[in-house]
Amino acid sequence: MTIADKNLQNLCNEIMTSNNSTEGEKVRPKYADGSPSHTIFVNQVFEKYDLSKGELPIVTLRQTAWKSGIKEILWIYQDQTNDLDILKDKYGITWWDEWDIGDRTIGQRYGATVKRYDLINKLLDGLKNQPYGRRHIINLYQEADLAETKGLHPCAMETQWTARDGYLDMTLIQRSSDLLVANAINKIQYVALQMMVARHVGLEPGVFCHYVNNAHIYDRHIDQAKEIMSRKPQENDESVRLVLNPEKTNFYDFTIDDFTMENYNPVKPNLKFEMAI
């Protein structure tokens, strides 16, 4: 069982046994049939993985769409766009379509914010020229951008980067995390980002920290949560590795084909979830 599997089961149990619920409260998200999508939840969740010691935050208790997650990261930080047609045509991903604001974009969000403030280039230059600085931050929660257009506010909203003795550590901060649908994808996609940035600036991936302010399970995902808690992982899952092509060093040259997931055998069957929009 991977560390991420243990953390997932423990967090499922913590949420399921908590007394925190939005039932009876006014909530923004709704299911496709128009019903309000309530959650049970816990606040202030923190996880830590040392990538240099093989502690990859990969979940095997269910299939994690790691390739699609990394493609989304390339769309945000390489393409630096909010264009849903680029996401669909270039990467084959349509899961953002439900948040189309009517112009085939998700509004002035994510990649559009990265481009507007030149965030990734500033990060790469800063880590190269002053690696031990304490101001290496990408913040996607820009109030001016949120006010400019409608659209979902960024969930994975900030990364903070610090160097130490040849390693690059990174902390991902999320305001909100749908535990069973997106949490595992967010972890592995931001580890991929950490790996690409580290390679570009001549460092090795170090510690990945993940802070979630509100981790929740939707009321129509309770059965899936129980299934996750009862599952046993496949053998040798502790040997799962995400490998980045050693021949490339430039951040903007990496593609999904430069990533390989070794020894990944998630538990079957895969689970299905009704989306809350």
TrEMBL record:
Entry-linked NCBIfam families: PRK01827.1-1
Homology family: Belongs to the thymidylate synthase family. Bacterial-type ThyA subfamily.
EC number per UniProt: 2.1.1.45
Protein's name in the database: Thymidylate synthase
InterPro entries recorded: Thymidate_synth/dCMP_Mease, Thymidate_synth/dCMP_Mease_dom, Thymidate_synth/dCMP_Mease_sf, Thymidylate_synthase
Gene name linked to the record: thyA
GO cellular component: cytosol
Keyword Cytoplasm part of the UniProt annotation: yes
Top EC group: transferase
Listed SUPFAM superfamilies: Thymidylate synthase/dCMP hydroxymethylase
Positions bound to (6R)-5,10-methylene-5,6,7,8-tetrahydrofolate: 178, 276
